[in-house]
């Protein structure tokens, strides 16, 4: 089974979006360089960020996201983001009316069931869990192996928290990745398991 990674770009004060679900300047690092990160050339990052981010993206077999994010993005028009093979949507509701059942999206009730389904779909590849409420629930349930974040030099003041509504303490190991890019600091922590 592949590693389960909780991931997002985050402000230095811990938010992944503002109170209106807008990222504002959080994604500025994705256009702060001259190396194309995606096939369309829309995203251009520093060579350092490319060397860190592109191999990670290429290892993702499935992404777990909440219905709120799915709705905000209009389901990415039926095409998973960043070249991911499958998206597992945590939801208590059915797919939207008229949704193409052949699209590689899977609608699952509950975080545990969603991570299990994503693991099946990903095989030995990475399962990415979007940070926020769904990511926080997965972390609290002991389903996350690694926390990965792209920290940007922005203070939002309030908004959607990286760890969602997690209210308990969770220990992480020392960072095993600390990489400085243009307008971003890439960090990765293994989740400490109880002994």
Automatic annotation (TrEMBL):
InterPro entries recorded: DHFR-like_dom_sf, RibDG_C
Record domain Bacterial bifunctional deaminase-reductase C-terminal: where: 114-171
GO process annotations (BP): riboflavin biosynthetic process
Coiled coil region boundaries: none
One protein family per Pfam: RibD_C
Molecular function as annotated in GO: 5-amino-6-(5-phosphoribosylamino)uracil reductase activity
Name recorded for this polypeptide: Deaminase
């Amino acid at each position: 089974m592949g590693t389960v990674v909780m991931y997002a770009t985050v402000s230095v004060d811990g938010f992944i979006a503002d109170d209106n679900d807008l990222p504002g300047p959080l994604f500025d690092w994705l256009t702060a360089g001259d190396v194309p990160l995606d096939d369309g050339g829309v995203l251009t990052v520093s060579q350092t960020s490319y060397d860190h981010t592109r191999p990670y993206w290429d290892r993702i077999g499935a992404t777990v996201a909440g219905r709120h994010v799915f709705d905000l993005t209009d389901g990415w028009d039926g095409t998973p983001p960043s070249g991911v093979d499958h998206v597992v949507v945590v939801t208590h509701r059915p797919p939207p009316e008229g949704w193409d059942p052949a699209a590689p999206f899977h609608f699952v009730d509950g975080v545990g069931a969603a991570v299990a389904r994503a693991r099946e779909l990903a095989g030995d590849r990475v399962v990415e869990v979007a940070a926020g409420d769904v990511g926080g629930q997965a972390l609290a349930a002991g389903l996350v192996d690694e926390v990965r974040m792209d920290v940007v030099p922005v203070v939002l003041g309030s908004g959607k928290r990286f760890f969602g509504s997690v209210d308990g303490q969770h220990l992480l190991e020392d960072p095993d990745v600390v990489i400085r890019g243009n307008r971003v600091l890439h960090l990765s922590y293994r989740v400490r398991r109880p002994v």
